[in-house]
Amino acid sequence: MSAPSVRPQDTPLSGGWRPRTWLGLALVLAGAGLVVLHWVEVMRQELLVRQAFFAGLLAAGATAAGTLPALFSRRLAGRLLDGVLGFGAGVMLAASIFSLIVPALDVLAEQGAGNWHAAGTVALAVLLGGAVMLVLERCVPHEHFIKGSDGVGSERLKRGWLFVLAIALHNIPEGMAIGAAFTGGDGVAASALATGIAIQDIPEGFVVAMALLALGYRRRFALTVGMLSGLVEPVMAMLGASVLVGSPLLLPWGLALSAGAMLFVISHELIPESHRQGHELWATNGLMLGFVLMMLLDTALG
Fold first, then answer.
1. Torsion-angle region of residue 246: left (phi > 0), alpha (psi -120 to 50) or beta?
2. Which of 171, 247, 274, 301 could form a disulfide with 192 if both were Cys (CB 3.0 to 4.6 A apart)?
3. Is the dihedral of CA 264, 268, 273, 278 positive or negative?
4. Would you call 33 exposed, middle or buried from its count of C-beta atoms within 10 A (0-12, 13-18, 19+)?
5. Contact 82, 283 (CB under 8 A)
6. Residue pair 241/49 in contact by the 8 Å Cβ criterion
7. Based on the number of CB atoms within 10 Å of its own CB, is 81 exposed (0-12), middle (13-18) or buried (19 or more)?
8. What integer pLDDT is reported at residue 158 of this predicted model?
């Protein structure tokens, strides 16, 4: 019996990729290219978008710098990890209040909104930001530092990449917050917010690199991934600023939505993770220190 004939259109290309796959990839790349060109044009025309992007780069650079001590370290003590996670939670908590929620209320007041209107709008936006992060957390596979893997399809990915996705999720609200803050009109307060996020990104980069080393990855790979993990922040800062710039009606929504996303990460990720190993006092002290530092930065400079 002769072998069944194979139609040319059914024959896969090299690597098993069909023409439709190549076409889909080309369309995705073309779309990404158009988005990048649009952002470049927006950055060229809008000073605030450029400022937000470079502030996000500062935070990404702080993450990269934080990975360098991993060159000389072999393991991360549990108490130190919990203290670092608590510190990050404290910075983000203060930033969500003083740098995002309070300015959102002020913007609405300047726009003529009454007390209940302003408070209700901010409350709704905060809940919406938390809901967005909840959907992303459920849909994107990722790895918690201590709890383990989570999200749809997490069992099909290596743990190292699950950590990368977890940090990406963590950095989304931080980048959004930077972008929203720079479009709020107070450059000093926005710079204070970016500085506080950059400060807490330094130990975060170290934690990411050490977590990958603990999983058995090579030191070069762990440091590279740790350095690259912060690149989500300038992208989200630029995206958030480009959407909000020139849209005063959207500005309080963007500020409060970023605050809600950060609050979700604090309560759902950072605080529970910092308490799983029994070092609650270290985590609490770290949270208090981070909160006070960010509050001082925001209120003193802003």
1. left
2. 301
3. positive
4. exposed
5. yes
6. yes
7. buried
8. 52
**Most confident of the ranges 44-53, 84-93, 244-253:** 84-93
Contacts of 274 (CB under 8 A, 6+ apart): 81, 82, 83, 85, 86, 89, 280, 282, 283, 286, 287
Can you give the length of the chain in residues?
A: 302
Determine the pLDDT at residue 19: 56
Residue-wise pLDDT for 196-230, tens only, equals 888 888 888 887 787 777 767 788 888 888 888 88
For residue 251, give every residue at least 6 positions away whose Cβ sits within 8 Å of its Cβ, in sequence order, or none.
104, 107, 180, 183, 184, 244
Q: What band does 132 get if pLDDT is binned at 50, 70 and 90?
A: confident
pLDDT > 70? residue 154: no
Torsion of CA 282, 172, 110, 124, to 10 degrees: -90
CA pair distance 214, 299, nearest whole angstrom: 39
pLDDT score of 20: 54
Q: Which residue has the tokens 């024959």?
A: 11
What's the rounded mean pLDDT across residues 174-189?
82
**Cα–Cα distance measured from residue 293 to residue 297, given in angstroms and rounded to the nearest whole number:** 6
